[in-house]
Amino acid sequence: MANAPAIELDGVSRLYGERRALDGVTLSVPAGATLVVFGPNGAGKSTLLRVLATLLRPSAGVARILGEALPARSWAIRGRIGLLTHEPLLYGDLSARDNLRLHARLHGVPLARVDDLLTQVRLQRRADEPVHTYSRGMLQRTAACRAVLHDPPVLLLDEPRANLDPGAAELLEPLIGAASGRTRVLTSHDPAAGLAEADLVLGLRSGRQAFLGTPADIDVATVTELYRP
Asked: What is the largest CA-CA distance in the chain?
């Protein structure tokens, strides 16, 4: 079904000791839609992404990704998720090409795709240099290639355009932007830019849903209010 939910959460909570990093989050994201998550530091944005990425187990509630229940069926969807965080998840002593080839072998992806992606993000001239010599923006471009290498239907993106100049951000649009056609969950601290690419908008504060709706219902002022002390 074209509009079947790709992501479903029903009362999902995540506890660290007695602290509730997520508290009863409920939402549904249709396949191919973009959910943009806003909230101040400590609101639960990164915890939400880690739960969706199967890196954390929900403490309560029901979570489904592509119809598979978490954590029982986490193994069935890990290869269908792409994750891009503030950490590039690359081996510093390896080149960009070798990093991506390693991931390609893990996912059974033809090695030719590595060179195609490096060309798309204009890293082919430095593709054989160790990534620890790269600028932060170059690392982010390499990490974006890693995240989409296996052509996942779901992308989880933690402020994906951080450390990118406008030209580099434009290079990544076909890979991680709305034009990719993937279901996306991305965090943002930029109300105007985030709302512009959202199909659904979630506001988190202290782990709880402050609002959930569409950009037609939620304006910049509403998002900005989340960040007020």
From this structure: 50
Return per-residue pLDDT of the chain as tens, 229 residues.
Answer: 446 799 999 999 999 988 999 999 999 999 999 999 999 999 999 999 999 999 999 999 999 999 999 999 999 999 999 999 999 999 999 999 999 999 999 999 999 999 999 999 999 999 999 999 999 999 999 999 999 999 999 999 999 988 789 999 999 999 999 989 999 999 999 999 999 999 999 999 999 999 999 999 999 999 999 999 8
Backbone phi, psi, residue 192, to 5° = -65, -50
Report the alpha-carbon angle 100-102-103, nearest 5: 65
pTM of the model: 0.94
Helix axes 112-120, 96-107, angle to 10 degrees: 130
Is the peptide bond preceding residue 71 cis, with omega within 30 degrees of 0? Answer: yes
**Per-residue burial over 113-143, b = 16 or more CB atoms within 10 Å of its CB, e = otherwise:** bbeebbebbebeebbeebbeebeeebbbbbb
| 49 touches 85 (CB < 8 A) | yes
Cα 53 to Cα 16: distance, rounded to the nearest angstrom: 18
